[in-house]
Design goal:
heterodimer; A: 446 residues; alpha+beta; PmbA/TldD fold; 2 domains; 6-stranded antiparallel β-sheet; 5-stranded mixed barrel; B: 514 residues; 10 helices; 38% strand
């Protein structure tokens, strides 16, 4: 599969035909989404391929609006001969629904203003990637991990995934948009022999849109081993209130508990502890959250959102104050307000200027959280509880690795304890957070 | 995409009017026996034995130990009620075949959504690239395995029609609001899937099945003195529409409302290591997470599970028996036949405190020189099978629940949990208690909520010191177990039992110090 104008034209013709048929069959409006994706997965273990997997998939999603009623269905079958029945069945389903005057396609005025900046979502070099390249990449990562892991290694699994896709969306009221993209993910996980029956497993995977943006493969493999060896001897300590640093790559796990309640559906359905907090102080002055869809090669970058609204940079939280919520078209109508967007693109929290080492040195006794396990966050109350894995430091000196411990708090208090952001945003994700320092957190253990 | 080396359990629930409930009866309905097979893929798509042989021969054209074909046609539907109206209908159709070539513990895998001979041969070619040897032969004939029938459905079962679901959701909505004036929002949903599968193996097995799954749920928000709490409940499993009667609908509504109201009184318990009593039923998630995953044989044959060296050894007190079972009637994890063509069965994992078996697929069974246990499961045709749990439970002991609570002294009693996660190598786990009670001086006192419980699987298993004779299975249908990016429906069960100590994560230190 490659990106080409023929594919886009094929999608456009099919979408146009579906819209015509759907309207003829009695729908007032409809939206068609078409996508095609080709991917390859290669995994190695014990220096031989463990899994080789490759396939192309396609999907068609049709949403119909019939007399203020709504239904949506997806199918992999693009044949016009079967789509005719698919369309009429879907319209019949919609007719059985109860009326919902809020469920419509967006007013077309909201479709205008899309920027045509090239977001570099598709790597032209993907076409040059051969099966031999892929195997070599995985072997290199595996070798580096095995070498760094040394005699502690029980098992190393290294893997590569790459994909190329094309999406096309058209609505009966004038929206059309398409996106082409590529994605690479490569890394390794290692299991090591620890005391007794403990076999800590660590991992390091990198995801990006361009192959040339991958760090060195040796570095990826070595890092997977380092992160595993860092887990050795992990034990719980007595329950304690102290500063914690949440490492950049795992910080989104905590932030997610705050992002969900910012959605229009949570607010309208009275499931959000943030519902009445627009314009009020939620966190410390350091807590700013920006949604930026225009980062070239960004994993969350986009030209338009799910409603077809043009992508726009927004500052949802500034200096701890909530400016806006995620309001899509449907919930904007239910809430009686202007829509913003229904989903985040790339989330940014501005980094600070110190690295982790300097921060740890100045913190006294603190825990660096390197991973979370289990846990949950209550969207109605803001209470959350997460299992933590990490390292205990005292005055910059490593004391011990910790495991089987827990961090609990409430988001309304927690973000006020944000004391510093590191200079290390994790850009291999659509949630680009630096390491974050929080004061006075209860970490439960013995 | 690679998943991180963790196993997760996610209890899928909450997402998003009034009428009388009229439930059609299935009087005198004929029930299909899965053994008989339906020749569905032959009739609908022209997949005959000759074509299967050609595809398997292609998959083994460069060698390999065995190959298999997994045909799937599934239709899923979701109907949602929000703000008093059944106003959302979503559906998905999935069709395709996955073709696997296996050599030792190596897998070549291709799949296609087009059931044309050309596309399927191309997928078989992809699978074959794993090997580079001379061709392996394919059985010249296929036999259908004898299986049980753990989810009989009516002969013309083709899912549950939309019209039948509407009154169910409308009744839940009315019922919830009628139960308490403090309820301010109700969401309800009805999800169901009908999956038809056919597994054909190069060693001569051809198995077919019709697999229903689904659930109905209610999710409510209650408001009291400016505070809000939410809770949800679901019931379902491998069932047809006859299950969703008035009693089931009432229970779904009542449990969601009761649980939400209880939370207004709930406090966060003290943090630290304390005795934990697990109430019966849904707390079986802990068994699934902390113990079951580590016993999946792929982790053990790779030597990466904390249980890798424990087979045949004492892992628990002698009264502890743990079972992974495909044969429970209508539970979410029941299977007539697994996704490798092996009939579903009951497997003892821990017997009288001794670890007696792992959970096997064909690859791991061959590795250990054993018969497969019928645990080779996959999410869909786009994925290859792995050892997965089905319905995992611990049988009962002889203590009374009251004695167990008394014995705990000061600790917590866990009533409801929402999700959990385990690290296979360390055995460390965490799971989220959405509802429970404090135990003070051997008595249940204040309700608690929103805390994590942390522990280590083998340690916890060894620390189960009492169990009651009140085993309860989870009858929800929304439970999905995740492993390497694949979700499969499962169930679990537990009697009331006492775990000597686990770490409870709260915001108060023991003794009330904040």
């Amino acid at each position: 599969m490659s990106h080409n104008k023929d594919q886009q034209q094929e999608f456009r013709e099919l979408a146009g035909w579906i819209i015509e048929q759907t309207k003829k069959a009695g729908a007032n409006d409809c939206k068609v989404s078409l996508s095609k994706r080709r991917f390859v997965d290669i995994n190695y273990r014990d220096r031989k391929p463990e899994v080789i997997k490759e396939a192309t998939t396609q999907s068609l999603y049709l949403a119909v609006f019939v007399d203020n009623r709504f239904a949506g269905q997806s199918t992999p079958d693009f044949r016009k001969s079967t789509l005719a029945g698919f369309i009429t069945d879907l319209i019949d389903s919609a007719r059985l629904m109860e009326e919902d005057p809020f469920r419509t396609l967006p007013d077309p005025k909201y479709y205008t203003g899309r920027k045509d900046k090239d977001l570099e979502l598709s790597d032209p070099g993907h076409q040059q990637l051969t099966p031999e390249n892929r195997h070599l990449m995985v072997k290199t990562v595996e070798d580096a991990c095995l070498q760094k892991g040394g005699e502690k290694v029980i098992s190393v699994e290294a893997g590569e995934h790459d994909e190329i896709w094309e999406d096309f969306v058209q609505t009966s009221n004038g929206f059309e948009g398409s996106t082409q993209g590529t994605y690479y993910q490569i890394g390794a996980s290692m299991t090591a022999q620890d005391e007794g029956d403990r076999r800590p497993a660590g991992y390091h995977y990198i995801g990006c849109r361009y192959r040339s943006d991958l760090p060195s493969l040796q570095e990826i493999g070595s890092k997977a081993a380092e992160r595993t060896l860092d887990l050795m001897g992990g034990k719980k300590i007595a329950t304690e209130t102290l500063p914690v640093i949440i490492e950049n790559r795992v910080a989104p796990r905590v932030l997610n508990g705050l992002l969900g309640p910012m959605s229009g559906s949570s607010i309208q359905q009275k499931r959000s502890f943030l519902a009445d907090m627009k314009g009020t102080q939620l966190g410390s002055k350091l807590f700013t959250l920006i949604d930026d869809p225009f980062i070239p090669r960004g994993l969350g970058s986009e030209y338009f959102d799910n409603d077809g609204f043009p992508a726009r940079r927004r500052e949802f939280i500034t200096g701890g104050i909530i400016n806006d919520f995620l309001i899509d078209w449907y919930y904007s109508r239910k809430l009686g307000c202007e829509p913003t967007t229904g989903s985040f693109s790339n989330i940014i929290l501005p980094p600070g200027d110190r690295n982790l080492e300097s921060i740890i040195k100045d913190l006294g006794r603190c825990i660096l959280i390197t991973d979370f396990i289990g846990g949950n966050s209550n969207s109605t109350t803001g209470d959350f509880s997460l299992g933590v894995i990490g390292k205990l430091f005292d005055k910059g000196q490593f004391v011990q690795n910790i495991a089987e411990m827990n961090m609990a708090d409430n988001h309304l208090k927690f973000w006020n304890k944000l004391a510093e952001a590191g200079n290390d945003p994790w850009n291999y994700s659509s949630v680009r957070l630096p390491s974050l320092v929080f004061d006075d957190i209860v970490v439960a253990g013995i | 995409m690679k998943s991180i080396p963790r196993r997760k359990f996610i209890k899928g629930t909450a997402m998003a009017g009034g009428a009388l409930l009229l439930l059609p009866e299935l009087e005198g309905a004929m029930f299909l026996n899965a053994n008989a097979g339906t020749n569905y893929f032959m009739q609908e798509f022209g997949i005959d034995e000759n074509l299967c042989q050609k595809l398997l021969a292609k998959a083994l054209s460069r060698g390999g130990d065995f190959a298999d074909l997994y045909f799937e046609y599934s239709v899923s539907n979701y109907l949602g009620l929000e703000d008093g109206k059944v106003n959302q209908s979503y559906g998905n159709i999935s069709l395709g075949v996955g073709i696997r070539t296996v050599k030792g513990d190596q897998i070549g895998y291709g799949f296609t959504q087009e059931l044309t001979p050309e596309s399927m041969l191309s997928a078989a070619t992809t699978a074959s690239t794993l090997c580079d040897m001379t061709a392996t032969s394919v059985s010249s004939s296929f036999t259908r395995p004898k299986t049980g029938n753990y989810y009989p459905v009516s002969e013309d079962f083709n899912g549950i029609p939309v019209k039948s679901k509407l009154p169910v959701l409308q009744t839940i909505h009315e019922k919830c609001f009628s139960l308490s004036p403090e309820i301010v929002k109700v969401n309800a949903g009805f999800s169901n899937v009908v999956k038809r599968i056919m597994v054909v193996t190069s060693d001569g097995v051809m198995a077919e099945d019709i697999i229903p799954s689904g659930f109905v749920y209610s999710s409510v928000v209650a408001e009291r003195n400016g505070k809000r709490e939410q809770s949800s409940w679901n019931l379902g499993g491998r069932r047809d529409f006859s299950y969703y009667n008035e009693a089931v609908i009432n229970e779904v509504a009542a449990r969601s409302v009761e649980n939400a109201l209880k939370l207004f009184e709930a406090i966060l318990p003290p943090a630290g290591e304390i005795p934990v009593v697990l109430g019966p039923g849904v707390t079986g998630i802990l068994l699934h997470e902390a113990i079951g995953h580590g016993m999946e044989a792929d982790f053990n044959r790779k030597n990466v599970s904390t249980y890798s060296t424990m087979l045949g050894k004492k892992v628990a007190e002698p009264f502890v028996n743990i079972v992974d079972d495909a044969t429970n009637m209508n539970l979410a994890g029941s299977i007539n036949v697994d996704d490798e063509g092996v009939p579903g069965k009951k497997t003892m994992l821990v017997e009288n405190g001794i670890l007696t078996s792992y959970i096997h697929d064909k690859i791991s069974a061959k590795h250990y020189g054993l018969e497969p246990t019928g645990n080779g499961r996959r999410q869909d045709f786009q994925n290859y099978p792995m050892p997965r749990m089905r319905n995992t439970y611990m049988t009962g002991g002889d203590a009374s629940p009251e004695d167990i609570i008394k014995q705990a002294g000061n600790g917590i009693y866990v009533e409801n949990v929402s999700n959990g996660q385990v690290k296979i190598g360390e055995g460390d786990f965490a799971f989220y208690v959405s509802q429970g009670r404090l135990i003070e001086n051997g008595k249940l006192t204040a309700p608690i909520k929103d805390v994590n419980i942390m522990g280590n699987g083998p340690k916890m298993l060894a620390n189960i010191t009492m169990a009651a004779n009140d085993l309860e299975m989870y009858h929800g249908g929304a439970g999905q177990c995740g492993k390497n990016g694949q979700g499969v429906p499962v169930s679990f069960g537990l009697p009331t039992c006492l775990v000597k100590s686990l770490t409870v994560g709260g915001t108060l230190q023991k003794g009330g110090q904040s």
